[in-house]
Amino acid sequence: MTRPIDAPPWDAPYRPEPNGPRDEGLEAGGAWRAHVAEALRGVQARDLTALSAAMEDDARRAGLTFPIEGGTETFHVDPVPRVLSAAQFATIERGVAQRIRALDAFVADVHGERRAIREGVVPERVIDTAEHHEPGAPPPPHGVWVALAGLDLVQDQQGEFLVLEDNARTPSGIAYTLAARALVEDVLGVEDVPARPLTGAMALLRETLEAAGGGAGANIIVLTDGPGSSAYWEHRTLAVHLDAPLVTHEDLALDAHRRLILRDAPQRPVDVVYRRTDGSSLAAPGHEKLLAADGLGIVNAFGTGVADDKLAHAYVEDLIRFYLREEPALRSVPTFDLADPRRREEALDRLGELVVKPRGGAGGQGVVIGPHAEQATLDALRTAIEQAPDQYVAQELVALSTHPTVVDGRLEPRHVDLRPFAFLRRVGGLDDARVLPGGLTRVALPAGSMVVNSSQDGGAKDTWVLR
């Protein structure tokens, strides 16, 4: 018997927090959002406990792991997909493509004329104090600095998607995105997933890498730190899908013509390196061969880290207007430049309302959510900011939307974000920016937690963009 689309997809009651953040499953009045219920028709009758167990078993058999402190664990994928309407994703797609174009222009300008500094769009100190600013970085041979980006988006109470952070050095998650889709398709047994397919993802990544290496047929390698790397599963998986060698610095050499080669395959020079090493600095061990090689494409190029600096994030909307002469299709979460005395004073007055992050932090480490923090924590944070204001950023608190998630065999609301991936190449002198339909939805599994990072008890969902 087919249920009406306004009926809950599962018999178990689902009750988001009263007066809480926006829930992506239910309307404010308690009815299921029509596009969500319709998309999930095919999984209505499934037992949630059995679904979760099957997902866990499949992930374990596939060797799908994620690093945690002290080791690795099976990557958790929730069996309930996140559903985005075509209209929702159209805005995301336009905004993400726009943003990678602006970030690429920004990095090129930082290593060139520095017009944005000269014309007062961004303070010089923001760039010069960025942890990953590389003033000596060589320009990419084929013009694109930020060939691949992964942005972190959150949905606010009004349903607007905002950019929380930019990731332009070595954005991770593409392999996990594909794995989540494969697990859901297998375990749910849905014959026709009502979502835009991800089957072209690897072709899109390959085209982007080949463009950075000079064109179709470019010789690609995937550079990793080895099995000890926190993201080694993804490195290995992408290398297999790209049919590219997975190598470490020890596998590389330069030939007599200063071209990069593999020691065990010296007859064919490397055209492009898909760099997934933890060390992103020019000074990191092993990078000497990359820097000395002639005509080598690197994705992403050294120096792109200035684009995902947490303080630079405060100025990206202005950078979009400056470089592209367009209004931002996606707004940034408002971010305070704490080295600006006026902004610092405002932030310190509202410290208990804001989110404060270490400027160089990652993975949610060191983040203080003002409304959830004890007074002693806020007092210590205030002192730290006053002593080193350029080492922290503050952001307005966005109550991350929640999504129905399986917890102990029943549906419960859990906070989510979204990491869509953008690919940029230059074709005929024009920027060609494309966005993978959907991306990786990350979910905070502990009740009430807004830290969605997988290294801190987070998981993932497949993301369905409706056709």
Work out the radius of gyration: 22 Å
| Class based on secondary structure composition and strand pairing | alpha+beta
Q: Given the C-alpha coordinates, what overall shape results? A: globular
DSSP E strands, number? 22
Q: Mean of the pLDDT scores?
A: 91
Low-confidence stretches: 1-5
Describe this structure in words.
The chain is an alpha+beta fold and 467 residues long. It folds into 2 domains: 80-330 and 398-465, no CATH class; 335-396, Dna Ligase, domain 1, CATH 3.30.1490.270. The protein contains 12 helices and 22 strands. It has helices at 34-39, 48-61, 86-110, 115-118, 124-128, 174-188, 201-212, 232-242, 288-292, 316-324, 341-349, 375-387; strands at residues 65-68, 71-74, 77-84, 148-155, 161-167, 220-223, 246-247, 252-254, 260-262, 272-275, 297-299, 331-332, 335-337, 354-358, 368-369, 392-396, 402-407, 410-419, 421-427, 430-435, 440-444, 458-465. Strands 3-22-21-18-17 form a 5-stranded mixed sheet. The chain has a 5-stranded mixed sheet with strand order 12-5-4-19-20, with helices on both faces. Strands 7-6-10-11 form a 4-stranded parallel sheet. Strand 19 and strand 20 form a beta hairpin. Helix 2 (48-61) packs across helix 6 (174-188) and helix 3 crosses helix 10 (316-324). It is globular and about 70 Å long.
